[in-house]
Each structure stands twice: as structure tokens, then as C-alpha cells.
Amino acid sequence: MPAALSVLAVIGSIHLLAQLLGSALVADITQVLLMPLLAAALWRGTRPPRDTLVRLTLLALGFSWLGDTIPRFLDGDPGFLGMLGSFLGAQLVYPIAFWPRWRRSLLVRPLAVLPYLLVAAAVVVLSAPGAGVLLPAVMVYAGVLCVMALLATGLGRLGGLGGAMFIVSDSLIALDAFGTLTLPAHSVWVMATYLAAQVMLVLAVRGRIPPAAGGAQGGTS
């Protein structure tokens, strides 16, 4: 396992344990380290000149890092909106990165698209009573997330799983934020699925790129 991924596994485990035990300080510190470590794993696992897929994935990880970091400094609605805007940025960049492979994705199979649309619609409907003026933003985000997850299937099985896991993670965030559903240890489930989604997407991207000289190749589909 590449060094950056090994460190990520350790920091991610510490973060999830901190979430479970309610150690806010440790959880905050470790959360802001996750995306930089994952970006390092992608950078180290690919060789120059890095193509558009890699560069845009790095940009999406940057937006995700902002989404992880902003709520550490802003409370309430400003923090939530900052997080939502940052993750929306990531979910807009990912589809652009994945678009060249759309013919390999589920978008060419209309019936396979239906479950994604149904899940997105269900989350919007369940969130609507508590979303208030944020409902349009939730609808836009759900639509963009659905497109990202579908296009991620063009990277292979691992990419498809990563996209689906992102839907699970962000759905849990929305359902909790708008008072619809809160699971026991909810934040642990959110972060576990979020981290798994990001790792699978990065490994899927690495699986489509020739490895860096002397570096181990990431997961394949």
C-alpha cells in the first residue's frame, strides 16, 4: 500500500474512533487531514504529465477539503451553506472529469439510471419539510450528485461503488440536517461512507492512469 494511503488509513481510523467517542477536537483535526492525504496518494500514484482526469480529481478533492474545513470555523447556517457550496463545487468538477468516459457509464442504459433518480427524488421529498428556503439548493445538489454517481460508473465497478457511496453519505447528511433521520452514531456513518466514496473514486481514477515510476498501481475495476 502506498505511504499516503497507509497514513490515510491510520488517520481515517482515528477520525472515526474520535467521532464514535465524541472527541470533537481530535475529530476536527483529523478530518481536515483526510483529503490532502488522499490527494497526495493520487499525485504520488500517477506520473507527469498528469491528464485532465487526474487534475480535475485533485481539484474536486480540494473543494471537498473546503467542505470538510469550513464547518470547523463557521457555525449554524453559514457553516452549512459553506459546506454545501464546497461539496457542490466538488460534485460539479467530478462529472466534468468523468464525462469523457460517459459511453462506458450507466447513462447509456436508461433503465439503470432510474434507481439513481428515484433515490435522489426520495431524499429531496424527505428533506423538503425541513429544508425551507434551502429546498432549491437541495434539489440542485441532488441532481448534480446523481449525475456524478452515474458518470463515475464509466470508471468501472470501483468508480460506480464510489459514486453510489457518495449518494449514501450525502443523503445521510441531508436527512439529518433537515430533521428527517438521525442514526445512532450518525456522524460515524456519514464519515465512513464519505471517506470510502472518495477513496474508491481516487483508486478508480488511478486505475485508469499509468502508474508513477516505482509506484504501486491503485485499484482497478
From TrEMBL:
Alphabetical keyword list: Membrane, Transmembrane, Transmembrane helix
- GO molecular function annotations of the record: hydrolase activity
Q: Which residues cross the membrane?
A: 80-99, 106-127, 133-151, 158-181, 187-205
Pfam families this protein is in? Answer: YhhN
Where does this chain mainly localize?
membrane
List the GO cellular component terms. Answer: membrane
What is the annotated localization of this protein?
Membrane
- On the tree of life, the source organism's domain of life is Bacteria
Recorded family membership: Belongs to the TMEM86 family.
Listed name of the protein: Lysoplasmalogenase
Q: List the source organism.
A: Brachybacterium avium
